[in-house]
Write a structure and sequence with these properties.
The chain has about 400 residues and is α/β, with parallel strands linked by helices. It contains 15 helices and 16 strands. Helix 6 links the parallel strand 8 (about 170-175) and strand 9. Bound molecules: zinc ion (ZN).
């Protein structure tokens, strides 16, 4: 009776992804026990006490990893941009497409026009594809509303997706994504509305865990970004930043100054900014899907990040314009083939480090006693298979909070 547990998974190989120094934190011939949705025991089966389990599952040598975490997505949006993708490939220029309402503002228009149930209906298959690959936690940003009503609608839909999909959802307010058409290019005026109107209302309604800003020449300046981060701090919300994707604006240094959870993209990260990130413990979120889709050639400075011990996460950046990617496994492959991460680094990037990028390292990201029993169980012989294959999904089953599904 002393060793009563809900469920036991035995005869497993376990990639705990703990920071133990061994590859994948691997345990051969392992066992995991759960109680109340949390991990009650993990280790070698030969060391396990005699559990009295409600259910005991023999995994026949399959691998268990932590449930995967996609820590940077924009997966709630209306419509898609396939028609403009086609127009570009038929030879039309970006200017021609923008002149006819294309680009991000077309997504803003479709997202504003969609009712809340319709937005939920359109976004559900994208989340379902991520969960079919073992994702148990996903971050979802707003940023296609650019007014309080639509930004709130997006964040409510993100919350509902989590409830219906049995996924932990971390919500990020990205009102400072771009300037809405009605602001007519008045960036400072729009930033004032984000800081003084949208952000305090979103925080008061409990709709967001964090605040993000697109800090770039086509987004918002260093000073405008700083104003939003000050407002976020005042509202008691964590911060993260789209930084150094297309040019170096010292956004990563600004993120570090504000104790940001993460700075994301970072293709143009400078060494001084990287040093600030290292000192502050800010996670670098790498988004190889956008790099691929935009056919970028400038790589983020991976060797510099390694040298400075900056933790590297990997995410899909699922969005309709620059990374219509709903496969975390393909993001792993891209991280290895395009950015030359090792498979161990890449898997840590969607587990242990991704949890840190969301401020939930005490709750998820590794298989340790006391954390949520979020598991991905795989029909593989080695964890490197998860980043090695292209377009192949070896998930055997997914466990979220100790339950199937
Ligand atoms: Zn993004």
């Amino acid at each position: 009776v002393g060793n009563q547990v809900d469920r036991v998974w035995r005869n497993a190989r376990i990639a705990t992804m703990g920071d133990s120094g061994t590859a994948y934190g691997a345990i051969e011939a392992g066992l995991i026990a759960s109680v109340g949705g949390k991990i009650a025991w993990v280790g070698r089966e030969s060391d396990a006490p005699d559990f009295n389990a409600g259910q005991s599952i023999d995994l026949a040598g399959r691998w268990i990893t932590p449930g995967l975490i996609d820590c940077h997505t924009h997966l709630v949006y209306g419509g898609n941009r396939a028609p403009e993708f086609e127009r570009r490939l038929n030879g039309e220029s970006y200017q021609q497409i923008a002149a006819t309402g294309g680009g991000i503002l077309s997504t803003v228009a479709s997202t504003r026009a969609a009712s809340e149930p319709e937005l939920l209906r359109q976004s559900t298959p994208r989340l379902a594809h991520l969960t079919s690959e073992g994702v148990t936690t996903v971050e979802i940003k707003s940023g296609y509303g650019l007014d309080l009503e639509t930004e709130s609608k997006m964040l409510r839909v993100a919350g509902d997706l989590g409830k219906y999909g049995n996924v932990r959802v971390s919500r990020t307010f990205l009102g400072a994504h771009t300037v809405p058409p009605e602001a007519a290019g008045d960036r400072d005026g729009y930033i004032a509305s984000v800081c003084d109107h949208q952000l305090p209302a979103i925080a008061a309604d409990g709709l967001a865990d964090a605040v993000d800003v697109f800090c770039d020449t086509v987004g918002f300046s260093y000073q405008q970004t700083r104003r939003v981060l000050v407002a976020a701090r005042r509202a008691g919300l964590a911060v993260k930043l789209h930084a150094e994707q297309l040019s170096d604006q010292s956004g990563a240094a600004l993120a570090a100054e504000f104790g940001a959870l993460s700075a994301d993209h970072l293709e143009h990260l400078s060494e001084p900014s990287a040093q600030r990130m290292a000192t502050a413990g800010t996670v670098a979120v790498l988004l190889p899907g956008a790099f691929y889709y935009l056919q970028e050639t400038r790589l983020p400075p991976i060797d510099l990040m390694r040298r400075l011990n900056i933790p590297m996460a990997v995410a899909t950046d699922c969005n309709p314009g620059t990374s219509p990617l709903t496969s975390i496994l393909l993001a792993l492959n891209f991280a290895c083939t395009l950015f030359r991460l090792t498979p161990d680094e890449a898997l840590a990037g969607v587990t242990r480090v991704a949890a840190r990028a969301l401020g939930i390292a005490g709750l998820a990201g590794t298989l340790e006693v006391g954390k949520a029993c979020d598991l991905a169980i795989w029909d593989i012989e080695h964890p490197a298979e998860l980043s090695y294959a292209i377009g192949f999904n070896p998930l055997y089953c997914r466990i979220a909070g100790g339950c199937d599904g």
